[in-house]
Protein 1
Amino acid sequence: MEQREYNFPASAPASGRALAGVVGSGDLEVLLAPNATGSTHIVVNTSVNGKGALWDAVLARIFGGEPLPAAQIIINDSGATPGVVRMRIEQAYEELT
């Protein structure tokens, strides 16, 4: 099991809490809560070791552009593909609107 942490600049705090996805069978869950610090802090817990560069690239692509609402995000991964990672993060933010 591997754990990685990230911080990205963000806009105003997220408007609430959200959950997207489930862990198991090659999927992942995203738990999102507001963050009052003006940044997005992400903790990735993954059962797949040695994929740090992939996580770095995927999250930089998602959070490196237009700032999203500031959040505390926990990602619990069971071997999801980058497309699923992006989809689950987008679903969590959509749940807030």
Note: The chain has a mean pLDDT of 95.
Protein 2
Amino acid sequence: MSSNQTVAPATILIVDDTPENITTLGDLLQPYYTLRVAINGARALASANSDQRPDLILLDVMMPEMDGYTVISRLRENPHTAEIPVIFVTALDATDDETHGLELGAADYITKPLRPAIVLARVRSQLELKLARDRMRDQNLWLEAEVARRMKQNQLIQDASMRALASLAETRDNETGNHILRTQGYVEVLCRELARMHHPEVLDTHCIELITKAAPLHDIGKVGIPDQILLKPGKLTEEEWAIMRTHSALGAEAIRRAIQDEADQSVFDFLHVAMKIAHYHHEKWDGSGYPEGLAGENIPLPARLMALADVFDALINRRCYKKAMPLEQAVTVIQDGKGKHFDPMIVDAFSNCLEQFISIALRYADTEFESAY
């Protein structure tokens, strides 16, 4: 704050039903603070709950209809007034009375007859404490906003870097980055429908976010496959197919090596999911897939989701070794694979969400799919 700026004086609400007490406190505090007055509890609550909240309340205990103890209890129950510091001003002298007031949330206790030096010191002390709390609260809010901003920025950078890496593998495979966007969209749709159908306790919002975020890395291992195999227009030989099949293990191993030396593995949750997807998305429900021949629920759920998404997209789009398949035929292939290639529940989710699949396919379409559809 620049030196020519002035700080408005603190506002103090005096609550007392005796005019003489109000006058005494007013004469004492008026030179230093902005004062407001309430002559009973109801008016005190209304004034405290106004848009111009006081910085401090001097509250008499012994008042008719609503005593100070009731007033402070009401203040503390209201989130709008709960943090306003209250100093009780009372003729009561008993320790039990003071203890009760402090238990209800009073910041301090001043007994009558009032001693000016004591009143000014107690008021100043409570206002300084409130100012310090307000500054700390504002600083914490700023820090929270700054942390959220930086986390969002880091998330965007992380997502962009991940997609760039995934696109590298797709580009080598003579595919466009749209394959990544399509399969990621399919996986998210399947996750949400499967959660609705069967697994809301397993596929919660965080889990769906992790799986969806990890999906683009499913074929990252293709960067390790030679071009003469990866881009071969015809059918692969048995030897070539054996090499092609290694891309799943290569992808998982590449991700594992990237994070193995980090002490805090929790920050790489989505990469652990990505390892499962990369490694197992060519496994089949009946155990006839690769690389390990896993079957049924032994195949990690993220990989089962990706298996269907990846096959569906491969069917309806051109590859270097085949033409795009008409949509209706591709849907039949997926549904015929229920309980064989694919998890039956995931096929059911696919059938329920076919319109969403078509929408995603069209949104990120290659020309071949548009003509096929």
Note: The two ends are 65 Å apart (CA to CA).
Protein 3
Amino acid sequence: MSKFVFSSPRKYVQGAGVLAELGTWLKELGDSAFLIADDIVWGLVGEQVQNTLKQSDIQQHYEKFNGEASGSEITRLANAARQQGSVVVVGLGGGKTLDTAKAVADELQSPVAIVPTAASTDAPCSALSVIYSESGVFESYRFYSKNPDLVLVDTWVCAQAPVRLFASGIADGLATYVEAQAVLRSHGKSMVNGDPTIAGMAIARACEETLLTWGYSAWTAVAQKRVTPAVEAVVEANTLLSGLGFENAGLAGAHAIHNGFTAIEGDIHHLTHGEKVAYGTLTQMVLEQRPDEEIARYIRFYRAINMPTTLAEMHLENESWENMVRIGALANSEGDTLKNLNPGLTPETVANAILAVDAFSQSVK
């Protein structure tokens, strides 16, 4: 029997300068905040966050995020939040910080507010976290009973971040509809364990249309640290549309292959989440035998925003066949989503597709 589930944040707020309103929005959730951010992010926005919370009479405690969304880091921060008696958990920063904040809030059964400082992933809106080992190897997805209570995105702050992160968010977002179509076709389940909803598919489609229509002009604006209407549209696509799309329509090959890349060591781990997802998206397209021109269109777009489309750009040009198969094996693990693309894929088939992307990309003019 079909079961349709649609999940979303309680409230989403976006605009240039809205970080100054964080205290006002947080006041709806509680009067004591536990703030999680890494040193870099805290140096950029910490003073402004402290001021807006003070103006709303919200008590606050800041704790440094150590860089990995691991079980030990989640436990450490949850214990610190308990000692402080904080009511609301607030994550500020990038994907791993935000995933960790969601996990800490789940441990405490507390409201959580998510404040991305770059439009670099679709993590902010979802009711799940990607959990890694302390050395950065993918371990599992952790699911929650609810989405964040507040997602607040200051587009001016996001536009001040490196343009590489903005492009990475576009690449992450472009996987959304590609994967959603595979889930729908295979009668797979979404990330909220339902059949893909009409709304989820429509949002995923709108995400792709927005990114392919305005992604390049928005990228050029952010390179100059400007906020334009195109930037606002793409930030919404990177964050809200991609988040709602992947959660309610599902994941398939692109993100599974991204996770597979964690099976090996090397310079690939200096790449961003979105850069690895971009290559994973192309690999999925090869595996599902999409038309050459459709794959070429994605390759040309990725090149325009400096996303990797070759093994050399992925730092994989010297990897052994055995390591390529290891990537395919981890992508194909039981707890991941490659089965939504094709349950019959083997590690060797995935490895061949990874190599085929490189050859085809080099032929595209």
Note: The chain has a mean pLDDT of 96.
